[in-house]
Amino acid sequence: MLAINAGLRYRLAHPTQTCHKLEASSRCRNGIRPLHRGHPAAGSDYLTMIFRCTQKLLKELRIKPQEPDVVSEVGSWHANLLRIDRRKCVLFTHDMTLFSVFIAGLKRDEFDHIDQVFGQAMFKTMRLFNFEQEEIERMLDWSEQNSYTKTANRSVLGSMNDIAFHIDCYIHDEGGLAYADLAQLHRRINQIPLKAIGYKYPRDCLKSLLSGKRRA
């Protein structure tokens, strides 16, 4: 079990205060849903995390798509709105590794604070796979400065369709969304050998990516 240090525990308990005191900067608007704010500082390990959203998700988020000035494959995700059991759900899939985070039953307020909702869901999902605390914090750092734009990779979207199919089948077999074990669901969808990443597991690809960044 991964121990959580005090700093990380505070960041998760106070998601609107984790933007490095961004009220004094231009990264964050009232601590809520930071959109494109320009280039990261020189020499910084921070990246703009890019969510490439389908049209139906952008409409639900009420966000006008903006392409950031600095685009990094490491921080690029695709996201799609799914409707399961008449509930609104969002599937986030990391472009390079196809590591996925599924968030079920979102309400209006959660869509309005999607940055914080995603960050907390990503933290929980990474803990399931015993990622090191440094690796989780690195992903949380990257998610502090976000940009929302249109989808741009058909291969990733194709893989997301496969993942969404597995999600739908698992939830159906469990008797519905209300009865599904979402932790087990995340274990399943991140341990599927996918063609786009050479039939490797998404969890292993993300682990390799973050381990390489740590050694660099």
Low-confidence stretches: 1-11, 13-45
Number of helices: 8
Span of the ends, CA to CA: 26 Å
Query: What sequence of helices (H) and strands (E) makes up the elements?
Result: HEHEEEHHHEHHH
Helix and strand content put the structural class at alpha/beta
Number of strands: 5
- What's the shape? globular
The biggest beta sheet is recorded as: 5 strands, mixed
Proportion of helical residues: 40-55%
Cα-based radius of gyration, to the nearest Å: 16 Å
Estimate what percentage of residues fall within beta strands.
5-15%
Question: Overview of this structure, please?
Answer:
By secondary structure, this protein is of the alpha/beta class. The chain has eight helices and five strands; from the N terminus they run αβαβββαααβααα. It has helices at 6-13, 55-61, 108-112, 114-128, 133-142, 154-173, 182-189, 202-215; strands at residues 49-53, 76-84, 87-94, 100-103, 146-150. The protein has a five-stranded mixed β-sheet with strand order 4-3-2-1-5, sandwiched between helices. Strand 2 and strand 3 form a beta hairpin. It starts with 5 loop residues before the first helix and ends with a helix.
What are the main properties of this structure?
216 residues, alpha/beta, five-stranded mixed beta sheet, 8 helices, 40% helix, globular, disordered N terminus
Task: Put the structure in a nutshell.
The chain has 216 residues and is an alpha/beta fold.
Task: Describe how the helices and strands are arranged.
Elements lengths: L5 H8 L35 E5 L1 H7 L14 E9 L2 E8 L5 E4 L4 H5 L1 H15 L4 H10 L3 E5 L3 H20 L8 H8 L12 H14 L1
Parallel strand pairs: 1-2, 1-5
Antiparallel strand pairs: 2-3, 3-4
